[in-house]
Every structure is written in structure tokens, then in C-alpha cells.
Amino acid sequence: MNTIRTLAVWCPDWPVIAAEIVDGVAATGLVAVMHANRVLSVSPAAREEGVFRGLRKREAQGRCPDLVVVEHDPNRDARAFEPVVAAVSELAPGVEVVRPGVLLLAARGPVRYYGGAEVAAERLVEHIAQECGVEAQVGIADGTFAAVLAARAGRIVEPGETAAFLADLNVAAIARPALVDLLRRLGVRTLGEFAALPAADVLARFGFDAALAHRRAAGDDDLPLAPRQPPPELAVSENFDEPVERVDAAAFAARALAERLHAGLAGHGLACTRLGIEARTEAGEELHRTWRHDGLLSAAAIADRVRWQLDGWLTGSGRRARPTAGPTAGPTAGIVHLRLIPDGVIADGGLQLGLWGDAGAERDRAHRAMTRVQGLLGPAAVLMAVPSGGRSPAEAVRLVPWGDERTPERPVEPPWPGRLPAPAPATVYPDPLPAEVHDAAGAPVTVSGRLKLSAPPAHLTVDGADEEIVDWAGPWPVDERWWAPAEAYRAARFQLVLADGRAVLVALAKGRWHVEALYD
């Protein structure tokens, strides 16, 4: 797959700049923007005093007693960033906002139009400075992930050299703190070292999100989220009898539209990764903006982005030196039409409607019926399956009474060494069936402490019935709670294919074989 050459525009320390634009806090002073009692962004002057991102508020103030603390406001950041997006849109089409302070677009158009990557980058930086009075950096590379990092470094990476550019960067660039901490403890310090790990091992050990980060570290970040063009009927719109001019009224309308859009996508088993926002004013002005997200946009996330965008359009207070008129000025009248378009969607395997639907009279009748059964037979008479973490199929699902909180017994996401690969068995026996496994000579098959089989398994005996084994896989070792002798459990699991076409999951524990599950 050919990765698209991407141009990224990055405005350094944007939360600090936005605080200056909207609230008048001087970005040249000692300023820190806080979120959840930690430093989110700092001004250059505060950075020189030893204040950096991630520092706790008390420690930051201890290092810099004169520090001006500003609470983070996503609405402020988005409102101030809108004129920057508008300024870039004047020179190049197809702008996608990743977050306030960062935007992306395909590099081919502006590079060809302005006669080179360097000229295009200089033109964009100069135009942003003239129109908005803010500093910006431009980077070009293969793919969105590398382009953003190139913008932070102010570099233009030549085609085909993205992997080499990423290789020497700190592994913290993947922006996943828990994974970064684990990789550092394992001795992985750079993106190149992370990319050198086998992809299959990364997926098995760390999970899907880490596998996605691994692809990006290798310079290939477009394939996992490759959006496809959605059916046009998934877009939602709303007409307003009275023009909307206040941000609070616009936010209310945005929330309702976002829920409609998310519900429509969920009904098709889809989730949004790129959101198009269109508006028409009473004066006939047409407004459009695209927001991009690396993950899946929830209803709340969609509503947030629509609210931020409408705030930016309606207030138009995002320039340090705002011109009295010009192409980047905001709309001159209230909004009478709003439309949300899922420009990019992917299949979302986590979305599944209930058997009786998720809303309406059918759901209410089902709830009443199940509550009635529980009243007659007890709470345990109606159970719900809740995905849970674990290594065996029996541990992967937790049964809880209807109406109780659906919380997993163990975390689902963390890696589980020794966990069985997909697909999962269709039938899991509550009480494993005693069994015997013999080799071709009729001798019992054993497994040593180093997981070496005494001989290949050839026959499986369950309840006196002997079945020939035509294929097998394993062992998958399990060594749990070895530090607590009373709770310790050691076993070796195997998948066996029988002559009649059935496949079973068996385990050898404490010298005895058992059939744990049956595959379809």
C-alpha cells in the first residue's frame, strides 16, 4: 500500500497561545496550562525555569513561584484555532483538524502548486503569521503520524525515508504513557527499536492498540484506520426556524445531532473516524470543516468537536491581530442549517444491538419480563454474560445477575501471557470432562517441565469412547500464582482435531487430562 504524502501544520504550545488570544494571558510570561492537576502546556519562559509537560501543579509552582496557572479549556483552544484553519484553507483544500493546534492535508496539491515542498511550507507559515499573528511549523512525510512529528521538528522528510526519520526518535512519541513505560523497562528506547520487534509478538503481548502504534513506529500508519466512503444516508442534518447565534444554543443542537449520527452508525456496525461539519447561515454563507481522529469517535466526542467548531465560527475571536474584514472573518449571520457527515467510517466490532433492540417498547417489555422471572426464581435465574480477562475460555466470560453492574472480573485489555489464540471455542464445559490422551503405541502422553511432549498425541478417550487425533497444536503453558502455593495452578493446553471433524480444547494439569471446551 502506498502511504499518502501528508503535510502537517503544528502551532507550538497552542493551549498557552489560545489563553493569550482569548483571555489575554501573555504567552511571553511564565504561563502553564493545567489539566487534572498536571501541566499540559507551558510557555517558553516557564520551560526555561524547569517547568515541563506532565509535572504536578505543586512541583511546577515550587520550581517557578511566579508561574501563572491557567486551567485547560478545550472550547477556548478550538475557538482560537479556527482562524488558523481558515487561513490554511485559503491556500490548500482538504484540511483536517486533528486537535486544536494540529491540522493535516494532502501534500501533493500545495507542493505542486507552489513549486516545491520548501516553498509551500514557507508560504503556509508566512500566511498564518500574517493572518493570525501566531507561529506555526510545517512538516511533510509519508503518513499522518510521521508528518506531525516532522512538523514538530520543522522537517521535510523525503519520500521513502520516513522509517529512517522515525527510527531515532524517542519511543515516547507514540503518546501512550503506559506502553511507553513498559517498553522502557524492557530496554526499548527508540521508535526504531520498537519497530524492529516482530509484529505478531507485539500484538500477542501488548494488544491491538500497541500493534497500531507499532505500525506507526515503522512508518506505516494508514492501513489500520483506512476509512471507506460511507453511504450518504448516514449524514444527519437539522434546520433551525430561528437563526442560531449563541454558542449555548448551538451546543444543544450539536449534542442532539451527534447522538443521532452515532446511533445511525451503530445500527450499521460502524464508527466514525473523520467528521465533516457543514453549516449554512441566514445570509447564505456556506461553512465546512473536517475533524480527524486517530480512534473511534463516540457520541460525546462528536458533540465536543461540533461544539468547538460552532464556537469558533460564531465567536470568531481567534486572532492576535484580527483584521477588520477579510476571507478569514467569521459568518455575518446566524446559522439556519447544520449537517454532520461521517467522512470516514470503519467497522466497529464492539457495537452490537440487543436481541430485542436497545430502545423503545421492546426493550422495556424485555426488562419487565426478566425482572418478573427474577422475582419468581431469584436473582441468579437470569444471568448476563460480561467479557472478562483471563487465559482460559472459562475465564473470558463472567456471568452476572440481570440488572447488576456489568463489570469484568479481570481487566480485558491487558495482555495475558499463555492466552489461547482466536477463534474462541463455541462450547465451554462448566465442569471439564475427564479424559485420557495416548500416543500411537498406547502409552499416556506426558509433558515435561520444559514443555517437551513424551510423544505426539494420537488417541483421545472420553467416557470410554476412543477417538483418533488427526492434528493438534500446543502446548500453551499456564503458570498462575506460583508465589501462593495454596492457589498455584500449572497446566498445558492443547487443541486437538479428531477424525470425525470435531475440535476440542484439552488441558493437562497435575498429571490428569481434561476436555475444557469444544470448537464448532
Query: Which stretches are poorly predicted, pLDDT < 50 over at least 5 residues?
Result: 223-230, 321-328, 349-353
How large, in whole angstroms, is the Cα Rg?
Answer: 29 Å
Structural class determined from secondary elements: alpha+beta
Strand content: 25-35%
Task: Sketch the major β-sheet.
Answer: 8 strands, mixed
Shape: globular
Gap between N and C termini, in Å? 35 Å
Number of helices: 15
Spatial order of the strands forming the largest sheet:
7-1-6-5-10-9-11-8
Oligomer: single chain
Percent of residues in helices comes to: 25-40%
Mean pLDDT: 83
Number of β-strand runs: 19
Protein name: DNA polymerase
Keywords: DNA damage
Domain UmuC: 31-155
Pfam family, one: IMS
Write the layout of secondary structure elements.
Elements: E1 5-10, H1 14-23, E2 31-35, E3 38-42, H2 44-48, H3 57-63, E4 68-71, H4 74-91, E5 96-99, E6 102-106, H5 108-114, H6 117-132, E7 137-142, H7 144-153, H8 162-167, H9 177-185, H10 191-195, H11 199-206, H12 208-217, E8 236-244, H13 247-267, E9 270-281, E10 286-297, H14 299-315, E11 335-347, H15 361-377, E12 383-387, E13 397-401, E14 427-438, E15 459-462, E16 465-480, E17 489-498, E18 503-509, E19 512-519
Parallel strand pairs: 2-4, 5-10
Antiparallel strand pairs: 1-6, 1-7, 2-3, 5-6, 8-11, 9-10, 9-11, 12-13, 14-15, 14-19, 15-16, 16-17, 17-18, 18-19
